[in-house]
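Task: sequence design from structure.
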């Protein structure tokens, strides 16, 4: 008798029956098996810590809209950088709150080799040479109108802005910045910065492009932190990307990579994880996301009200970035997370 035509023994199930008997909870039943099948993990190596700077000495001010986040004078920023390095955090990103008297229409203080950001870079390099320094090269902390570009007759002028930030990038590199991170979204900025850096002997200074920066409501607390909140009139829609657009974000990134970006960043973070995944799949480049001020403050505020478990929400939100394809995350939680991770949490 032909084996194939023989009736199926009663104890062998059809494929459909086998499928029906799958139980996904089997692997979730114990801590050991959950650990064994865990797909993504957050480590201290994934963290970049953004910090705020102010003038003065031995000064530390809490940002009202960001409980637990401070503006540090240069001396204290250097100490914090050393602490971060000790925690194993690979890199720090600095954002200056410039004295109002130094802000003007064109943001000219960005071209001062001894401005707050450059002084902080030198002090951090000196105190903690093992930590990477990422400097934001954008005009908004330096202008009296809070925009990221030079404003002429109500228009943010592209090419004049690019020329100025390329010059500023060279000064930041000269002060010791390891990575230049332009956050202004002007066209052609990556190529101009690359040329300027190379032309000044800074071939090894990298560029992390804020490739896809969206015109978002989640930057609110940051604007208080650097003191632009009261200055900014209107919005940044003529240079940041519309939150509705994904294809445009891909085109922006393609352009920045063609111009020489070494790393790409998505900003804000959690509401834009779909963009992270698309960019990672499309370009396979070192991809980062910025968990911005509003995301941080929402978690803090809800936790302060007892509405969520803040620590768990912090860890879960950061793990979500990893799952989406991030190689690292800029987060104000960085030192707290590093401490938790080293405690084995
Ligand atoms: C602007 C800049 C912004 C942030 C960093 N650099 C946003 C803005 O004011 O438009 C936001 C960071 C945050 O919200 O944490 N160059």
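Answer:
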């Amino acid at each position: 008798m032909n084996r194939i035509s023989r009736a199926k023994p009663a104890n062998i199930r059809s494929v459909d029956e086998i499928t029906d008997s799958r139980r996904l909870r089997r692997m979730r039943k114990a801590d050991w098996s959950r650990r064994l099948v865990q797909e993504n993990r957050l480590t201290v190596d994934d963290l970049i810590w953004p910090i705020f700077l102010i003038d003065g000495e031995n000064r530390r001010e809490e940002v009202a809209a960001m409980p637990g986040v401070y503006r540090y004078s240069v001396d204290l920023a250097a100490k914090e950088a050393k602490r971060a390095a000790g925690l194993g955090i690979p890199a720090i990103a600095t954002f200056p709150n410039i004295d109002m008297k130094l802000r003007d229409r064109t943001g000219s203080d960005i071209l001062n080799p001894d401005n707050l950001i450059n002084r902080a870079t030198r002090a951090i390099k000196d105190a903690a040479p093992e930590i990477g320094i990422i400097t934001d090269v954008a005009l908004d902390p330096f202008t009296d109108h809070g925009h990221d570009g030079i404003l002429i007759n109500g228009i943010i002028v592209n090419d004049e802005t690019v020329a100025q930030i390329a010059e500023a990038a060279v000064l930041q590199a000269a002060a010791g910045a390891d990575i230049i991170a332009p956050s202004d979204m002007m066209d052609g900025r990556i190529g101009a910065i690359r040329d300027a850096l190379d032309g000044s002997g800074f071939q090894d200074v990298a560029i992390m492009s804020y490739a896809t920066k969206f015109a978002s409501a989640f930057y609110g607390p940051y604007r208080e932190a650097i003191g632009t909140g009261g200055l900014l009139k209107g919005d940044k829609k003529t240079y940041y990307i519309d939150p509705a657009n994904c294809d445009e974000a891909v085109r922006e990134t393609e352009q920045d990579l063609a111009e020489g970006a070494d790393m790409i960043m998505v900003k804000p973070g959690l509401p834009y994880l779909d963009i992270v995944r698309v960019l990672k799949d499309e370009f396979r480049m070192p991809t980062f996301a910025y968990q911005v001020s509003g995301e941080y403050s929402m978690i803090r505020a809800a936790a302060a009200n007892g509405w969520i478990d803040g620590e768990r929400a912090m860890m879960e939100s950061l793990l979500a970035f990893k799952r989406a394809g991030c190689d690292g995350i800029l987060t104000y939680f960085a030192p707290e997370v590093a401490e938790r991770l080293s405690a084995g949490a």
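The pocket of PBG is lined by residues 136, 138, 140, 148, 183, 219, 222-223, 236, 292-293 (CB under 6 Å).
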